[in-house]
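Reviewers of the previous submission asked for a worked example of the structure-prediction workflow described in the proposal, so we include one complete record here. The input consisted solely of the amino acid sequence. No template or homolog information was supplied to the procedure at any stage.
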Amino acid sequence: MRGHITQRSKGTYSIKISIGKDPATGKYKSQWFTVKGSKRDAEKRLSELLHQIDTGNYMKPGKTTVADYLRR
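From that input alone, the workflow returned the following structure tokens.
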């Protein structure tokens, strides 16, 4: 499973993606996102997230400084 979409309410969808294994524990990690709009918007966002993971450009949301980003 790479990612899937579920409808939460009218006009709101949840996206769950697998971001790979945690090297320390060996367990798979996942990340949840909320998209407001149509299902097509959610599918587009899922595609963007999976592309970022595949190309190595995905950064987990958080407080990342420019210096931390450039060190990657």
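The chain has one domain: 3-62. We consider this example representative of the routine output the project will generate in years two and three.
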